[in-house]
What does this fold into?
Amino acid sequence: MRGPPGPGQAPPRRKRPPEGATHGRAADEERYPGLVRAAVVQVRSGGDKAANLARLAGAVAAAADQGAELVVAPEVAMHGYGRPGTDLAAVAEPLDGPFVAGLAHLAHAHRLTVVAGMFEARGHDERVHNTVVAVGPGGLVARYRKLHLYDALGWCESDRVAPGDPADGVPVFGAGDLVVGLVTCYDLRFPEVARLAAAAGATALAVPAAWVAGPGKAAQWEVLLRARAIENTLYVLAAGQPAPSYTGRSMVVGPAGAVVARLGAGTEGPAAGVLVADLAAAEVAEVRAGMPVLAQRRFAVVPASMPPQGWRG
It folds into this structure.
């Protein structure tokens, strides 16, 4: 990990990659001014938080060397779920804890914004929040607490994780000319969450995930990512944990639903799990002008009246 600059020193300039180094469609800068170079990184997290942060630091450095201004890492990048029954409260941290501080160090050293998942301590409960944070050179920019917990196909995430509050909505933050919304993994199956981000002004959606492997899951992952892009006319930046436990196949999807760039199931691929693509808010505007589905919608999204998943009275 590169150390931060000393007092009075400017952060180092990011390298621009050589011609053709992006692994997705390089947007035409004359047609689409204000490009934002974004990366998704497909890294594994285990039970050693220091090792996880070091692995993530290497991926962020590789993305920065290719000119990335925004890096999206997987869900629970701080610490994996572990075996069923693992005490997540024992490894959870507050938002001002070591993991977010480590991300801030990376963001400052490389002059970019990092999005990554963590277990957030709640203090008054044995359960934790499954939280995604966006951290820039100045510190925490946004946080999203996973709303829909993975109580499906034999998993029961709500045993150890408490859902976020729907009243918090979906946060967005700026990255160059883009406005980025945050959702997490299983939220993909609930299209209203992505629609909330679009309604809040998002032109890109960051999707950190640990999409559990299984029959048909890889196909569902891609279909859902492309559907969220198409119906909201925005970019989708999906970073998944790799095989064998998870599906991998991190990808960038364009605002008309085309896959711009993708990785395989494992950590193979360009720069060992680092995928870079150029994005343009102007392309989103162009797609929305031709397909104005957001302007034509007839329904608003409001919180459901039923108790939230994992609710305990």
In short: The longest helix spans residues 49-65. Helices lie at 49-65, 98-110, 191-199, 217-232, 281-290, 293-296. The chain has one domain: 36-296. Confidence is low (pLDDT under 50) at residues 1-22.
